[in-house]
Amino acid sequence: MKTIVSINIRGTVFQVEEDAYLKLKNYLDSIELHFKNRPAGDEIISDIEWRIVELFQQQMAGDRKVITMSEVENMIAIMGHPADFDDQNKEPLEHRVIYHARRKRLFRDMDHRIIGGVCSGLSAYFDVDPTWFRLAFVVATLSGLSPILYVVLWIVIPAARTIADKLEMYGAPVNISNIEKAIRDEMGDLREKFGEYTSKAKAKFTRW
Fold first, then answer.
1. CA dist 187 → 43, 58, 163, 182 (Å)
2. What phi, psi does 5 have (nearest 5°)?
3. Which residue, 45, 52, 183, 189, shows the most beta carbons closer than 10 Å to its own?
4. What residue segments make up the domains of the chain, in order of their start?
């Protein structure tokens, strides 16, 4: 009979066989060592750990109560090792998603929304320009149907709030490489927006 160890990952408790625990601990330690001193390292580590929790919960569905070596190895196979992705796949997220295309999940795209993110979410799922969905809703609005339909979709379709949600929305694998790159892309967008805001503020101040 194997020794069982209780672990806590992001507030979720799992029962893990001792040999699987040692492998998992070494894996988590390697992730922390790899990212802790990098920009946005804490956020990257957090999102990776949340994804690990999600994968374990999926594998433990049903009567399974204890994580074995098999579950840990399956998780690592999906997530990959940090060192495997260094200096690889530096292309933008959109290009990477097309290259690694897989099954998508339907979410509301909160990053490109005009109202509730329904049209931009449908655009990501069906790979169609969101303008067409917006035009369709405008046309439907003239017939009196769109407000009801849009509100229903707004309620039914979940919002893509986490990095994992956003990757799945585009059909990208939720692994270490894509989590890191998505977070860095978001940081780049924030810096760009902040730069634009600062430039506008300076221009207004100069006019005064």
1. 11, 30, 12, 9
2. -115, 135
3. 52
4. 4-101+163-202, 118-156
